[in-house]
Amino acid sequence: MKLIGFYQEMDPKYSPSWGGSVPPPESGADSYSVQDIVSYLKSGYPILDVMELTTDVIGGAFRVPGGSSVLTDGQYVWREDLAWYVERYNIDLPQDFLEIARRHGFRTPPADHEALLNLSLEVSRALGFQQKT
User: Fold this and answer.
1) Closest CA to 24 of 74, 76, 89
2) Under-50 pLDDT residues of the chain
3) Per-residue confidence (pLDDT) for residue 71, from 0 to 100
4) Closest to 86 measured CA to CA, from 20, 39, 21
């Protein structure tokens, strides 16, 4: 599991290794097609739904219902609101993530149901959610 888009300004409990600070606006310029990456991010498999309204931590330009919900492509996991930061600010993203998205034609690849369940549990633990037994 590789976490992207979990920036410390969004939640101080996030580990710096998950993304550190929000990249500056336009730091992703010329690295990717905004439209293609936004489409890829929005097409991820939902693995954790959070009922929370998030607010843009860069400029306050948008709010996202369920923004801290988590999606995946089976390898990377990201917050729902990451697509909004990419679309609005063209922020920098990891090159290995961009390569995977390109390799799959900017379409989320098929994922095994059991693997998605395991990712959901792993993400829940990483974010500090309690598991009911």
Assistant:
1) 89
2) none
3) 97
4) 39
- Residue 36 Cα distances to 40, 42, 76, 104, angstroms: 6, 10, 16, 11
DSSP one-letter code for 23: P
Which pairing describes strands 76-79 and 2-4: parallel, antiparallel, or unpaired?
parallel
Question: 82-116: per-residue pLDDT in tens?
Answer: 999 999 999 999 999 999 999 999 999 999 999 99
CA–CA separation, 61 vs 57, rounded Å?
9
- pLDDT at residue number 128: 84
- Residue 122 CA: distances (Å) to CA of 6, 23, 87, 106, 116: 15, 25, 28, 25, 10
| The pairing of beta strand 53-55 with beta strand 70-72 | unpaired
* Predicted local confidence at residue 18, as pLDDT: 84
The answer, as to whether pTM is greater than 0.90, is yes
- The Cα 55–Cα 113 span in angstroms is 31
- Cα separation, 92 vs 20, in Å, equals 12
Strand 70-72 vs strand 45-48: parallel, antiparallel, or unpaired? antiparallel
